[in-house]
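Lecture notes, unit on binding sites. The following record was shown on slide 14. It pairs a sequence with GLP.
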Amino acid sequence: MNIIKANNYDDMSRKAANIISAQVILKPDCVLGLATGSSPLGLYSHLVERYQQGDLDFSHTKSVNLDEYLGLTHDNPQSYYYFMNENLFRKINIVPENTHIPDGTAADADKACADYEKTIQSLGGVDLQLLGLGNNGHIGFNEPETPFEQTTHCVDLTESTIQANSRFFDKLEDVPTQACTMGIKSIMMARKILIIVSGKGKADIVHKAFFGPVTTSVPASVLQLHPDVTLVADAEALSLCPL
Ligand code: GLP
């Protein structure tokens, strides 16, 4: 695993944007695996800025997102569909038809998950998968004890994730309790993985995930087994790691 230490959140975002930019420049028709949450916001701003400056062209790029809440419509500002359009897609020249997000409103959610996995395969797999890290070590919405061999599937969110994500909602009761997420296997099949983490609050889980045993109780620990992972984290997030 390649670990890149950043000074702070913005430095992390810039360094991670460099890696995604390189991917898009070297392979314009690449498939990017994208993530939501607060971690990638700065990185997306950097990509938008570079696009506006004429340094990046997304016209041939394709994307697949990691996950989506079940039950939120596309016009709901808390849906990941809305998040991606607001923070990235509508600000760059990616073709809307080339962007893919699990359908959280499908009548048959299990079928929607199976179809999503087929979509990823039909695109030829993910070239570069961006990940954030949940407080409990989740990646996507793969909560602790998720079997490593699962592909895209529906999940019940843990209490800790519902609590953590309630900061984006008016009240706790508004947070969806289920989601559709790419599985650990779908994530591990990506050719390259980029995980970004910042802040003191994640120091303990970063240490467990990347320096502890590989275990389903810390889903991100599986990344230690992937041949091409880059962790870009700020000094606070890396403060407990023996570097
Ligand atoms: C959510 C998302 C994850 C994300 C995590 C961390 O649960 N499903 O993909 O990595 O939150 O979020 P944040 O970056 O806001 O800490």
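Take-home: The chain has a mean pLDDT of 97.
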